[in-house]
Amino acid sequence: MTTSMRITGHRPKRPQTDCALGDRVAGIETPMLTEMAAATFHLERLQSTVGTPEQELAAYKADMTADRHRDYVLGAADRIRRALGTLTAPYETPANTDTGQAAA
Fold first, then answer.
1. pTM higher than the cut 0.70
2. CB 3.0 to 4.6 Å from 60: which of 37, 64, 71, 99, for a disulfide?
3. What DSSP element (H or E) covers 32?
């Protein structure tokens, strides 16, 4: 059995997050787009602040090898790609604009 939310004329309040950008744009976009925009902002900011692999390796407080750091970086990038692929897969098939359903 499905239940419906009572319609009151007001949108449900979105929860606050730890991301100032996400909280600022939360009322403009869907939650998915808000999170994607915030993630993009973080990655773009990271591009301008990240150092060379050697500088990044030197920033560790504990001992770290270059190979292990490389594995961490590439593993994190793989996780980002997988998550993005999962999120966007339903949109990869062109939609039938008459019904909003995927085209056959």
1. no
2. 64
3. helix 31-49
